[in-house]
Specification:
With 383 residues, the chain is α+β, with helices and mostly antiparallel strands. The chain has 13 helices and 13 strands. It is globular, with a radius of gyration of 21 Å.
């Protein structure tokens, strides 16, 4: 594995990189830090904030202060179509709230206002879709969810996070949500979906809670049923509006504040955020594991890490931009025939070829049926 980590460090021109893998009981299985980085350094984790916010909100549900069916109408006094938005809609990014706003018009990035003011601003905006009918990846949903938490607890978001996770997980007071996390600026209107600063070691404890289905060192923090819902898409029939995977031609796989799927090693269930992956136990492999990859450079930049990784299958080399869909399907069938055994043997690695394959796959999307393209991308994916 060190060879793969070293290759990633060498080919990504980043000043620092850390990869950490823990066993279910928290035992450190693997750790490698390269360049200008440290596991105890407080960094901006951007979208890694979403899973933290999700677990905080699920704890409030577990305590009876909220429910997944709590509405903005009942908690925040919203009216009209917006009043039907539930906490479940907000955590699954299917609230219908607009997320692609004009520059300078996104209140979630305004450090001069409060979370309450931003939520009020969002309540006045027209929905882009009926709640539960469309997925849009963005910050507005969790801003409203956090405001619901503030109202039912009578406490600011920073204190809620400290009480619900900071104290039981032993986080330092420096674990905070900011409006502008890279500048460590703005705390009255925290960017709940992307403003957290935390150390790698502290974030690993949160992954342990998710992996162990709600427990930390024998203490139950969230019910098993609620944690399991993080890996379930509550609205599978919803269309996809804004998604970081749209450009790859892939369907969204999202639960409650976490990406989801069955693509983990040896058939393990995967729940992930950008920069961290939890591979849950399965019948094939009851151990499971959790991995955290973070890198320095511009603060908050990370690489999606699924452990272990596999090289793209060489038999797909013939599928180029000029290849026909039938050629692609034929090659995919050959890969599938022995994919399970072969992928276990492949050395996990990142390489510069991964970037070229990503570019090739993106170009293929315009000349290949979606179903074939999705299979091609999955076979050549580095994640």
């Amino acid at each position: 594995m060190s060879q793969a980590v070293d290759a990633a460090f060498a080919t990504n021109a980043t000043p620092g990189l850390a990869v950490v893998v823990h066993a279910p009981d928290g035992q450190l299985l693997y750790s490698r830090v390269l360049g200008d980085f440290a596991l105890d350094r407080n960094i901006a984790v951007a979208s890694g904030s979403k899973m933290v916010s999700g677990v905080v909100l699920l704890r409030l549900v577990d305590q009876g202060l909220l429910s997944l069916d709590s509405t903005t109408g009942a908690v925040l006094g919203w009216t009209g179509p917006q009043a039907a938005i539930t906490l479940r809609h907000l955590l699954s990014f299917t609230s219908g709230l607009p997320v692609s706003l004009r520059a300078g018009d996104d209140c979630t990035l305004d450090r001069a206002i409060t979370l309450a003011q931003c939520a009020a601003d969002l309540s006045a905006r027209a929905l882009v879709a009926a709640p539960g009918s469309r997925f849009d990846y963005g910050s507005a949903h969790l801003t409203v969810a956090a405001r619901m938490a503030e109202v039912v607890t009578g406490t600011a978001w920073a204190q809620i996070v400290a009480q619900q996770l900071g104290q039981p997980l032993g986080w330092s007071p420096q674990v905070l949500f900011y409006t502008a996390p890279r500048q460590q600026a703005g705390t009255t209107n925290p960017l709940v979906a992307g403003g957290l600063r935390i150390t790698t070691q502290e974030y690993a404890r949160l992954l342990g809670v998710v992996h162990n289905r709600g427990t930390h060192q024998g203490q139950r923090l969230v019910s098993t049923a609620l944690v399991d819902q993080m890996g379930v898409d509550p609205y599978p029939a919803a269309s996809t509006g804004t998604s970081p995977y749209t450009r790859f031609g892939l369907v969204r796989e999202y639960g409650l504040t976490a990406w989801r799927g069955d693509g983990g090693p040896r058939g393990r269930r995967v729940v992930a955020v950008l920069g961290a992956t939890v591979a849950r136990p399965s019948a094939a492999d009851p151990r499971g594991a959790r991995a955290l990859t973070q890198r320095a450079g511009r603060p908050g930049r990370r690489r999606l890490a699924t452990w272990p990784q596999a090289r793209p299958d060489r038999r797909l080399r013939g599928c180029s931009l000029s290849s026909s869909a039938s050629c692609c399907r034929s090659r995919i069938s050959k890969v599938r025939a022995s994919s399970t055994d072969r992928r276990r043997q492949l050395e996990p690695a990142w390489s510069s070829r991964a970037g070229r394959l990503d570019t090739r796959a993106s170009r293929l999307s315009s000349s290949m049926p979606r179903s074939c393209f999705s299979d091609f991308r999955r076979c050549t994916s580095m994640s």
